Structure formats: C-alpha cells, structure tokens
Structure prediction request, 110 residues.
Amino acid sequence: MIRRINKLKNVGLFAELRSQGGNQSEFTKVNVIYAPNAGGKTTLCDVFRSLGTGKPDYILGRKRFGSTTAIEIEILFHGSPSPKAILGGGGWQNDPAGSDPPRTLVYDER
Prediction:
C-alpha cells in the first residue's frame, strides 16, 4: 500500500512537492482526492496509473511547462524496511531492488 509521496518534482503544476516528517500526509487503504479544477487531480491519477502499470509514458508528457530539469518522483510504501519506487530518467525503479510495488488501481474517467 502507498504510504506517502516523498517527492513530486516538475510534474504538471507540481514544481517541487516534498513531504514533511510525521504521518499527516500518509495515505490509508482507500483515499479520495478532491480539489478545485486545475488543482492537480488528473496529474496525480496519472502518477498512480504510471506506478501501477510500470509505464512512465502516462506522466512523461506532463513535464512542467518551462522546466529545464527532469521529472522526479519518489513514492514510499508500507513495509519494513520501507520500500519505495523512484521515477527517474530510466523509468520506475524499486528500492530495494527486486521488490515489487503494491497493486495500485485508479478509478477515474479513463
């Protein structure tokens, strides 16, 4: 299960989002994301869809307009030690290597 988004950089309207310590920004088993129009909901759905399918194509086209640096995403999962998925230049990579991200389902208009 996804625990927290540690980093979301240069994706859609997210210039650089970093989670703070504590558990105030942790996800639970079922999460509802709501925000005003143009608030980043579809971008987040595409991040989760990309993670769930392992296909970075869902978000590579969402690079922040005018940004000169690459998209960076780090998602932390529940477990011990805390596994995470990192999106960099080569697509999704899991840390520790060989671990699989949990199944992620996105229910939206797509």
